[in-house]
Amino acid sequence: MSHRKLEPGRLVVASHNKGKIREINELLAPYGFDVVSAGELDLPEPEETGTTFEANAALKAVAAAEGSGLPSLADDSGFCVAALGGDPGIYSARWAGPDKDFAMAMRTIEEKLQTVSSGQETNRRGSFVAVLCLAWPDGHTEFFRGEVEGDVVWPPRGTEGFGYDPMFRPDGHDRTFGEMSPEEKHGLSDDREPLSHRARAFTLFAEGCLKG
Ligand code: IMP
Predict the structure, then answer these.
(1) The whole model's pTM is what?
(2) Which of 48, 61, 68, 73: disulfide with 56, CB 3.0–4.6 Å?
(3) pLDDT tens readout for residues 32-61
């Protein structure tokens, strides 16, 4: 599938989430963009009324592109727990409440897991999903999805990263995302597939829109 190329220049990261903005900036660093966040441009944070990661990523990217007149990259992402039917999923930020209390949100997940397994062995499978949407001021959009599978860990471990990182151990690794440096979580430093959902989506975006 052919994608519209993005020429180097000013690019808006359409997010108000500090953890995400930091990771997207790290991923964009080698490509020479002049990156500015939606918050720095005083762009409003649109309400995420979509029912899919794609719809919410588009809401944010299109609003930022219209508000700024610049190409804008949004990430909609979440933590999906198999035994909870994929929850919190697109509602991952909301489960932490207005105070962004992720210790409480992680506890809620563990309590719900215990309730649904009611004495049986708990299914601890989970995944992180990220959908990147790149929107141009003329309304054109491109989408890229990344996912990473693993186990839901209790108690949470580590102080790196953000959000639900301390309760997720990706397959093939002993440590949680909360115990990994940013470089390890991205997993871009060797010839293998990138590790995090965001780095996987970003690699598809880079191959589709940035290279050659
Ligand atoms: P939204 O995409 O702004 O709706 O929010 C996504 C939410 O999912 C974040 O606030 C985090 O709670 C969670 N999330 C997404 N990506 C990650 C990640 O890489 N690590 C930990 N939590 C994440």
Answers:
(1) 0.97
(2) 48
(3) 999 999 999 999 999 999 999 999 999 999
